[in-house]
Hints:
Structural class: mainly alpha
Order of helices and strands: HHEEH
Amino acid sequence: MRMRRPLLAIVLAAVAVGCGTGCQKVLFPSDLPRNQFETHDRMRQRYVPLEEPDVFGNPQPALRARLTQPTG
Length: 72
């Protein structure tokens, strides 16, 4: 009886961890448009990326490209 309680606790912990870390798809994939405006921009070939690399190669927000007025 004494041996069963620790074994039962280990099995229950393993089941809880298994249920907590499920195998499911990502809810919002990064390659799909985030909203209807981004879809419209992609259809009109006016898409501006959200991030751009800085001089060191680290991603940073592409604020200048997104805030400038489109020409044409």
